[in-house]
């Protein structure tokens, strides 16, 4: 059966060298999910489109299906999000976590997920100009986990549904937990941190910014970030490498 080339919108998630002059490009496409393609000759100085195949670039890409990898035969830049990101370490690390998490949260390879593509694009655009990169990242992660079916319970007890607010959180049972249900190792978490997570999960930005910039805002936001990343890594069952880099900020 003859395979035909196709075009799609894509965000470059990561790249790595392949052979002497080629590069493997990992893409989150809008209509074909995660795709891995070979871009031949892009490491040469005279490459036609090598500069477009970098993280933080939104491209219109042409691909030809292969047995194991696609072949990338063309790419046009739609948007470059790196301008306001790569020169700021906190924005850069937050954006790297968003890209890596999106790859891990994506459905099976080749399965379309326009919502994830659009949401990641919007997050990268916001990260270019935000003064709160970690809040933007946590909002993206909480909404993406909700989209994947892993939304943490932030008010009712995740185990018995007892009405909150509660003051403990454990990703193994799904989020907030009451005194009767909290397992060993549960984290003590301020009620207002769970409230902040709810605002971020539902993109209620005025309320989120007001709470995050209150007198106790930095402590509340730090606790919310710890809970968000713990919940993410528990459900992924693997570490997000970019989070380790982010810890060095």
From TrEMBL:
Residues 5-79 form the DNA replication/recombination mediator RecO N-terminal domain. Keywords: DNA damage, DNA recombination, DNA repair. It comes from the Bacteria. It holds the Pfam family RecO_N. Transmembrane segments: none annotated. GO terms for cellular component: bacterial nucleoid. GO terms for biological process: DNA recombination; double-strand break repair. InterPro entries: ARFGAP/RecO, DNA_rep/recomb_RecO_N, NA-bd_OB-fold, RecO, RecO_C. Gene3D superfamilies: Nucleic acid-binding proteins, Recombination protein O, C-terminal domain. Signal peptide: none annotated. Belongs to the RecO family. Involved in DNA repair and RecF pathway recombination. PANTHER family: DNA REPAIR PROTEIN RECO. This is DNA repair protein RecO. It comes from Corynebacterium alimapuense.
